[in-house]
Specification:
Layout (H helix, E strand, L loop, with lengths): L1 H8 L1 H5 L7 H31 L8 H33 L8 H26 L2
C-alpha cells in the first residue's frame, strides 16, 4: 500500500517504468484524472453546502448525515482518481490492458440511492406540513 501511495508523488518512479508513451495517451489519462477530481470537489462543495444551507429536515440529523456522506464520498473520489491515474499511466507505459474498475458503477449507485432518499425526505417534509 505505501509503495502505491509513494508512486503518486514520485514522477521519476513513473518514468522508470516501461517506455515513454505517445504523449496524447498520457494527456488523455490526465484529463480523465482531472474530471474525477472535479467530481470529488463538487461532492465536497455539496457536502459543505448541505451542512451550511439546508434547513432542518424531518428526520433528526439527516442534514448532517447528508453533509458527511457527501464529504466522505468526495474525498473517496479524489483519492480514487489519483490511484486510477497512476495505475492507468503504468499500464500505458508497459503496453498492458488498462485497469478496469467497479468504482464508477458504485459511485453512480450511491448518488442515485442518495437522490432517492432525498426525494423521500423532501416529500415527507412537504406532506408533513399540511
Amino acid at each position: 500500500m505505501w509503495q502505491t501511495i509513494r508512486t503518486w508523488f514520485d514522477p521519476q518512479e513513473m518514468r522508470s517504468v516501461g517506455r515513454t508513451p505517445d504523449y496524447r495517451f498520457s494527456l488523455a489519462n490526465e484529463r480523465t484524472f482531472l474530471a474525477w477530481l472535479r467530481t470529488g470537489l463538487a461532492l465536497v462543495a455539496g457536502g459543505l453546502a448541505a451542512a451550511q444551507f439546508l434547513p432542518p429536515l424531518p428526520v433528526a440529523h439527516l442534514r448532517e448525515a447528508i453533509a458527511v456522506a457527501l464529504l466522505v464520498l468526495g474525498g473517496t473520489v479524489a483519492v480514487r482518481a489519483v490511484d486510477h491515474w497512476a495505475r492507468t499511466e503504468r499500464a500505458i507505459r508497459l503496453g498492458e490492458e488498462l485497469p478496469v474498475s467497479r468504482f464508477p458503477a458504485v459511485l453512480s449507485l450511491a448518488v442515485g440511492l442518495g437522490s432517492l432518499l432525498l426525494v423521500a425526505a423532501v416529500l415527507a417534509q412537504a406532506f408533513g406540513h399540511r
